[in-house]
Amino acid sequence: MRILVTGGAGFIGSAFIRLALAEANDLQIANVDALTYAGNLENVASVSDDIRYTFIRADVADATAMEAVFAAVRPEAVVHFAAESHVDRSILSPEPVIRTNLNGTFTLLEAARRHKTERFVHVSTDEVYGSIEEPHEADENYPLRPSSPYSAAKAGSDLLALSYFTTFKMNVSVTRASNNYGPHQFPEKLIPLMIANALEAKPLPVYGNGLQVRDWLYVDDHCRAIMAVLERGRAGQIYNIGGSRSLPNLEVVRRILAATDQPESLIRYVSDRPGHDLRYAITSEKLELETGWKPQHEFEAGLAETVQWYRDNAAWTANVRSGAYRDFYEKNYGSR
Ligand code: NAD
Ligand code: DAU
User: Fold this and answer.
1) Would the pTM count as exceeding 0.90?
2) Is residue 127 annotated as part of the catalytic site, yes or no?
């Protein structure tokens, strides 16, 4: 199968490419990525010489570029990861989020429609459901109440993707995963930021009281779920993908401090994220029943592996934390 992966130089897209090429035969992958601040070709360096793999630098919101990509690659399937993925950045600057997450998805759907691409998996997020009160868990029919420009744009792109099934009979499925963690995650998200700071004995900024709850999913478990949806998911359907491991942020931070032998005095309570969702909770029962998928990684083991990866790859972290990253953090969070 010829697969066009978008955003494959980012955290989850690169894990998907590495895993798919390692485990599946009879596969060709074209990775189209604009290489924004979050895209890093080091994430796919291990497959760059694989003859089944090609990289194309292009913007998914550029219709002319996408037409050329589809004409050259002739994908049988699209797995669409490319997005502006960080909630805090979407609050500081919503414009690129709308452009990539909404317009980019539209541009890809149109290209796939024109080229009669057989399968389209749109990778989305549990954040579209917004904050969920105890003891409820969202299934795929739960109302959409996104809080941030990021999650609102993802919710819009989900609906757009599903409309291409309803209206144009395209073979589209939407996945909605919970918080991912694992190697190669850009150190702006909670777990990699806290690990990277802890390893350098820098302060760990906890928003508000730190009692917000997230469900944690190891990145390879997410990628296997996407593979299952690509192969066996039904057209027009949404599939939640959760790690079945809910924890308050403060507990996650404490475990990272313990794993890195650092004191809790490194914790800094900083001002809260505007519109901060208190709790995410989803059920993945539909995906489990239909495909047999289940998460394989216990949080404790996954976190230990992740901490070890950041210990072993200090140069990767130093590289992504230089230049534009440093300027961005000094400008926006310098007073922390
Ligand atoms: P990431 O920020 O690590 O990577 C995003 C990638 O997309 C980067 O390589 C970037 O260069 C590329 N990109 C951005 N704008 C682009 C554009 N206009 N054209 C082409 N490429 C572009 O993100 P991630 O954490 O790997 O997330 C991937 C997908 O998974 C996103 O759609 C996100 O919404 C979804 N998701 C993420 C999580 C999570 O916890 N990280 C959870 C659920 C769903
Ligand atoms: O739920 C899935 C979503 O998970 C994905 O769709 C997003 O792409 C991904 O970024 C992630 O969104 P979150 O906003 O939940 O992730 P983040 O790592 O930014 O924050 C996790 C929690 O930790 C959240 O409650 C905010 C808090 N936090 C985050 C950072 C970066 C802190 O307390 N301090 C921090 O410095």
Assistant:
1) yes
2) yes
